[in-house]
Amino acid sequence: MKLLVKATAIVTVMTFTGCASIFSKSDWPISVKSNPTGAECVIVNEAGEYLCSGQTPMSYTLSSSQGYFEGAKYTIYCRKDGYSPAKADLSSTLNEWYWGNILFGGLVGMLMVDPVTGAMWKLKDPQVVSLARIAGR
After folding, report:
1. H/E stretch holding 4
2. Most buried by CB count within 10 Å: which residue of 7, 59, 111, 131?
């Protein structure tokens, strides 16, 4: 009887969880660096909504998902006196743990849990924004 209860518990957990949700996360810390350092940077999402600002080097935690089966996209705008403004795009990529659902999480993990939690996506770190010096300064 105890073996049946344990087996049922294991099957239930594996059926109603996603591999990426278990082994990974949906919010990722990113580091923004600039060349040269000390640039003022702003991070906005795909809709153009302001998320944060700071001086490089800076860190912020961003969601890797923008919705069901949709990875997040961000733009980092940086400026510094004497340099031309610059920007860098940051897009989430498919989390390799997501494919673990084929072995462990099943269809529920692959089609529901990981896409809903956003754990099927990841963000890469670090981001370096290079600013060009304005001639004559």
Report:
1. helix 2-15
2. 131
Tokens representing residue 76 in the block: 């980092």
Q: How many helices (H) and strands (E) does the chain have?
A: 4, 11
Report which residue type is found at 133: R
The verdict on residue 133 lying in a domain is: no
Q: ω before 115 within 30° of 0 (cis)?
A: no
Instruction: Give the span between the Cα atoms of 14 and 109, in whole angstroms.
Output: 8
pTM of this prediction? 0.73
CA distance 109 to 97: 11
In whole angstroms, give the CA distance from residue 124 to residue 23: 17
> Which residues fall within 8 angstroms of residue 22, CB to CB, at 6 or more apart?
97, 105
Please report, for residues 31, 40, 111, the alpha-carbon distance to residue 129 in angstroms, rounded to integers and kept in the order given: 11, 11, 36
15 in a structural domain: yes
**Cα angle 50, 39, 64; round to 5:** 40
CATH number at residue 62: 2.60.40
Whether 65 is covered by a domain: the verdict is yes
Range of the structural domain that residue 99 is part of: 2-128
